[in-house]
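Worked example 2:
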Amino acid sequence: MKIKICGITDLDTAIAAVEYGADALGFVFAESKRRITIDRAKEIIKVLPKNFLKIGVFVNEQKETIERILEETEINAIQLHGDESPDDCAGFLTPVIKAISIGSAKDILKADEYECEYLLLDSPKGKYRGGNGTSFDWGVAAGQKVKRKKVILAGGLTPGNVIEAIQIVQPYMVDVSSGVELDGKKDKEKIKRFIDEVKGRKRNGNIQIAR
């Protein structure tokens, strides 16, 4: 099971997350309390493992701006978390993750409109697009096999509920942000607890995920 820690803003947290076993880090370049500057992202990314998954999160951003940030920061995957159309998601040389807000099972059907490799299932938007700490009804995603896409589950995940969410949805990856924060900032202990839960380090054996 892959794990993404999203909303990274400082080097110490990034290094800790990698050491604990995270598989991807997310850097938010859209309006958010976790928004990061290009220069700060560059400082963090340059010390991360070369082949590590470093995801830039964008909301309704111009393609030219995204490509410029990719070039400057060495981000190696794009998460489009706004109202982007299938055409908006096409034409990138970098892998694209399209986020879709899930209110009902019908929303998941939108996935087939997109040619991107990954689909991120998130709760309906709040003040910001993502990272609001609320979950959706995982049952509507149970058993949904999105053609040719790797599913990433996000929205209100915590160390306390992530196992239940995985067992219901059986995603390729889980994505957490506010669920590993304390007083609005990333908490290393919560990050470690989350990763340990998902990786099965405190239980007998790992979660059995159908493929």
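The radius of gyration is 16 Å. Residues 3 and 22 are 5 Å apart (CA to CA).
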